[in-house]
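Fold this sequence, please.
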Amino acid sequence: MSIIERIRAHGGEVVRDRWQFSLKPGRLPPDAINWLRGHWRDVCREAWPSFDDWEERAAIREFDGGQLRHQAEASAYAEVAK
């Protein structure tokens, strides 16, 4: 069973708005929420298969291209979401 399937089995949901993610915890117990905090990138990858590509492109734009973080994220999203 995938991470997202387990979240949904407890009445929760992972919500994606472009490159940002949030958790609607439903009936997830506190220890499960703590575990998710430590594995949030895995959740993001599962919810959006292009997450790693987006993250890499945003980092390149920020560190090599000199863009501010929010600009780099938006530009990378526009590229990956095509």
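The chain is about 60% helix and 10% strand. The two ends are 30 Å apart (CA to CA).
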